[in-house]
Amino acid sequence: MVKCVYGLEDISEGEIIFNKQKVLGPSYNLIPGYPDMKLVSQDYYVLDNHSVEENIKDMLIGFTDDYKEKRNRKILKLLELESIKHLKAKNLSSGQKQRVAIARALTAFPKLLLLDEPFSNLDKILKDKLFDFIIHEAQKKHCGVILITHQAEEALKYADRIGLVIGGKIAQIGSKESVYYKPKNLKIAKTLGDYNVIEYTDFEKTSAYYKTKKRALLRPSQFSDCTKKEADISVTVINCFFNGKCYELFVQTRSGKEIIIYYHHSKPKEAQLFFKIE
């Protein structure tokens, strides 16, 4: 899909509009791609016979020498490429080539940056640093960024809006909060992480959820401590697991349904807990 947006592949139906102009594929353009877009893909588009530094400076044609040097140093530091800046790209590892490809795309920030799972070989700290830079540049220059990823956590962490593609079609699109907390169906819910399906009969009769007379789809993070009187739901702990970020309570509702709740500390088996739904 992202290659169609960039004009590297033709589309069989519909159309893509960018800056009020129709994006055309290789059947119409001798040289596919658009100068106002940059694509970072898993194909590592780099100049193999050029050094890392030359790959970056190649993207700065038309800028002043002073700007070239400042931008070059900034991008080299950002991508942690300073120690290998004189090496030719053909002699780099796949992870290093990936960083050079990213550097080329970010050197002269485009009007639309297309990221097709570009950070698969990068560690988490470098990935976070890159996204911080990309978000800052995009906001400052009023540019768009499209990220293609199979990692739900990555999409939820970095995106403003999320679109889920299932079976080649957009199944849901909206703010990440609305798609995460109000998925249109169970397949979408499952794609974005842990979820619970709870029947209305499991809720306390004083709860608004009980009065809807239908099931509720809730994330494990939507439960907060409360008193029995305030509770939307009461549960009994079956088991408790620590996942490195929080405790996952494996609990049972009054009808015997088993659900997962994220909690801030450990709870013993058989403990009875009361929760409000956020």
What does this entry look like structurally?
Strands 10-14-11-12-13 form a 5-stranded antiparallel sheet, with no helix packed on it. The chain has a 3-stranded parallel sheet with strand order 3-4-5. The protein contains 9 helices and 14 strands. The model has no long low-confidence stretch (mean pLDDT 90). The radius of gyration is 24 Å and the shape is elongated. The chain is α+β, with helices and mostly antiparallel strands. It has 2 domains: 174 residues, P-loop containing nucleotide triphosphate hydrolases (Rossmann fold); 82 residues, Nucleic acid-binding proteins (OB fold (Dihydrolipoamide Acetyltransferase, E2P), Beta Barrel). 22% of the residues are buried.
In the CATH hierarchy, the third-tier topology of the largest domain is known as: Rossmann fold
From the 3D coordinates, which CATH architecture of the largest domain would you assign?
3-Layer(aba) Sandwich
The count of strands amounts to 14
Q: Give the helix/strand class.
A: alpha+beta
Instruction: Spell out the CATH superfamily of the largest domain.
Output: P-loop containing nucleotide triphosphate hydrolases
The spatial strand order of the largest sheet comes to: 10-14-11-12-13
| Main sheet record | 5 strands, antiparallel
Could you report the average pLDDT, rounded to the nearest whole number?
Answer: 90
Shape: elongated
Number of helices: 9
- Beta-strand content: 15-25%
CATH class of the largest domain: Alpha Beta
Gyration radius, in Å: 24 Å
Distance between the termini: 36 Å
Please write the string of helix (H) and strand (E) elements.
Answer: HEEEHHHEHEHEEHHEHEEEEEE
Count of structural domains: 2
Low-confidence stretches: none
Helix content: 25-40%
